[in-house]
Design goal:
Elements: E1 3-5, H1 12-16, E2 29-32, H2 36-47, E3 53-56, E4 68-71, E5 78-81, E6 86-90, H3 95-105, E7 109-110, H4 121-126, H5 134-137, E8 146-152, E9 158-160, H6 165-171, E10 180-187, E11 189-190, E12 195-203, H7 207-219, E13 226-233, E14 252-259, H8 263-269, H9 271-274, E15 280-286, H10 288-293, E16 297-305, E17 308-314, E18 323-332, H11 337-353, H12 355-360, E19 362-367, E20 390-399, H13 404-422
Parallel strand pairs: 2-4, 3-4
Antiparallel strand pairs: 1-2, 5-6, 6-10, 7-11, 8-9, 8-10, 12-14, 12-15, 13-14, 13-19, 16-17, 18-20, 19-20
Helix pairs in contact: 11-13
Length: 447
């Protein structure tokens, strides 16, 4: 390849650092192919060797290796056929780059884009791919969205996945490991450009009333173009999301709402949130690029909390390599009042074990984000139950320099959270591929 870099190179971390730093294996070399021909030669050589290697995009699944990292960051071009409405996207293009491109070439159409703007396209697809459009068009990896891919196979041969149906099937949420994807073909769908979305912050003390309202709203089966996610925001972190924090500000619950049917419809269906006492409305009307921009606030702020100093960023890419992180995902058909309350209570009790872990951890309720695969479960490698609706996600983190004891606490929390929150209903939940942790999840048992 044109670029072979070692740890002394200034760009080495960009091409090799895992998101969760505890998974760092300190490879001595990174290969950066610039062409499919170069990649083919590398893949053929590595698979015939005894070297430990990994293929890496943007590193959010924390890939690392003892010997060699193959960085795919050169494969990021985007092309578009405006007649067929098909986007051809390089493996390491980010979703923000894709929606920015679509805004320029065909603003009335959009591909389903992951909610996090800085993650790579291929990694999302290989892990199922959830988006703001998932309740309408299914997972990004579903056949209605993901049409084909160029793949370098283990022996170095290059094929379009559609030439080998089993290969294409495995790429639809199979988690990777089935060759190296260089580009993907995605179908664009007609989509509104006047989406109403943004944050509504509500005092956390209103949670008892909100729990019933959340449950009632979710059971009402809103339009597929309507969904939202919810997370907790301690008062000392409000300055990271609000341009001005009022005196006497309280711990908050953040509702990040989304309605592609427009502002009036959105304000009507989310009236129950907007009219809560003390609600702060930070919603606006925008297109898909604007939606992803909301998750990409390019600023950093140091927040001091007694003996703790926490660096907060609105751009998740800035956190790469700064924390030790484990996930506890729970994809469920229903989240009743008890489960929501139990999840919040579990988060609150983290502070009793380690306050710094609590400050760096999150509980996120992604409501109304699933639908069954369009075309049938047999068409995708991650079939998922047709009853799934919501994703409850715990992200447990400690500082990158955290102790072994803190790592043990992360593991303990990740293993205990699902059972304590869901109880006997855990057996009906599923683990989405993006949240799979082979260290403690039963990989063969994943549905």
């Amino acid at each position: 390849p044109e670029a072979v870099i070692t740890p002394s190179d200034p760009s080495f971390k960009l091409h090799s650092e895992p998101y969760a730093i505890q998974k760092q294996l300190n490879p001595p070399v990174v290969l950066i192919p610039n062409t499919v021909k170069e990649l083919s030669a590398i893949v053929k050589f590595l698979y015939s060797s005894n070297l430990d290697f990994v293929i890496r995009g943007h590193g959010f699944k924390s890939p690392s290796a003892k010997h060699v990292v193959v960085s795919m960051l050169s494969f990021k071009g985007v092309e578009y056929d405006s007649v067929k409405k098909i986007a051809t996207v390089g493996a390491s293009a980010t979703w923000y780059e894709v929606v920015s491109f679509m805004e320029q070439v065909d603003p009335q159409y959009s591909v389903p884009a992951a909610r996090t703007p800085s993650i790579g396209v291929t990694g999302s697809i290989l892990n199922g791919g959830l988006s703001w459009m998932s309740t309408e068009y299914g997972g990004i990896s579903d056949p209605i969205n993901f049409l084909d891919a160029e793949v370098v196979k283990y022996d170095g041969t290059v094929v379009m996945a559609s030439q080998e149906p089993d290969l294409l099937w495995s790429l639809r949420g199979g988690g990777g490991g089935f060759g190296v994807v260089t580009k993907v073909l995605l179908r664009a769908h007609p989509y509104p450009t006047d989406i109403w979305s943004g944050m509504v912050l509500v005092p956390r003390k209103t949670l008892p009333q909100l729990v019933d309202k959340i449950y009632t709203f979710n059971r009402s089966v809103p339009h597929p173009k309507v969904n939202y996610f919810v997370y907790l925001m301690p008062k000392q972190l409000l300055s990271t999301v609000l341009e001005e924090v009022e005196p006497g500000a309280e711990d908050s619950i953040v509702f990040h709402v989304y309605d592609a049917l427009g502002e009036q419809h959105g304000r009507d269906v989310f009236k129950w949130v907007l009219e809560m006492p003390g609600a702060i409305d930070r919603t606006r009307v925008t297109n898909m690029k604007g939606i992803l921009s909301m998750q990409s606030i390019y600023h950093r702020e140091t927040v001091k909390n007694k003996s703790l100093t926490i660096v907060i960023t609105g751009n998740v890419a800035d956190l790469r390599g700064t924390m030790k992180t484990l996930y506890a995902p729970m994809a469920v058909a229903d989240l009743d009042q008890d489960a929501i309350t139990q999840a919040v209570s579990f988060y609150d009790k983290i502070g009793e074990l380690d306050k710094s872990i609590q400050m760096m951890s999150s509980v996120i309720f992604e409501f109304l984000i699933f639908r069954s695969p369009i075309g049938g479960s047999s068409e995708v490698a991650w079939p998922r139950s047709h009853t799934l609706n919501h994703l409850l996600l715990f992200i447990f983190s400690c500082p990158g320099h955290g102790s072994e004891e803190q790592e043990k606490i992360l593991r303990q929390l990740s293993e205990e959270a699902p059972r304590q929150i869901l109880g006997p209903k855990l057996d009906k939940s599923e683990i989405n591929p993006a949240g799979l942790e082979p260290e403690y999840h039963d990989v063969k048992g994943v549905k």
